[in-house]
Amino acid sequence: MQIKVSGLEETISSLKKYRDTLEAKQHKLLERLAEIGINTATLKFKSAQYDGKKDDVEVDPAPEWIGENRLLITARGKAVTFIEFGAGVMWSDEHEKAAELGMIRGQYGKGKGANPKGWTYYGEGGTNGTFVRESDRGNVYHTFGNPPARAMYLASEEMRRRIAEIAREVYHGD
Fold this sequence. Notes:
Order of helices and strands: HEEEEHHEEEH
Shape: elongated
Number of domains: 1
Helix content: 40-55%
Number of strands: 7
Largest sheet: 3 strands, antiparallel
Strand order of the largest sheet: 5-7-6
Mean pLDDT: 90
Distance between the termini: 44 Å
Low-confidence stretches: none
Strand content: 15-25%
């Protein structure tokens, strides 16, 4: 018995074109979500309470592809950890990922955040730093640390929150 199928090559070609558009749309979806994450993290880092100089924290404006379907959003700077996870035991709010990542306030860095009386540092006052005195190394400030800004965490939450909306725009917007 023989069955003749007409139009099979045309159907295969059409399906391949559809597959290719899905891959392109998937990449566009990921890029749009990464853009939302970058914008959210940048805003949260800039508006965070932090004693000292925080302008050296930057969120890379272009995400890095680390696989066919994965993008990496990166924040760089000397104070990223202190701003993201907070510093100083006087602050009661916790970062949701602190324990999992070993970033419990007062237990990382030089451990100064464990002192309930605060500590001093050289540099700029920032949000809550209290001027103590001038020194040959620069101005000395007292701090109790800062609450966690959760910039990267909140960026990931915002991307999750908006995934269905962005997917509808990308997949059904044409």
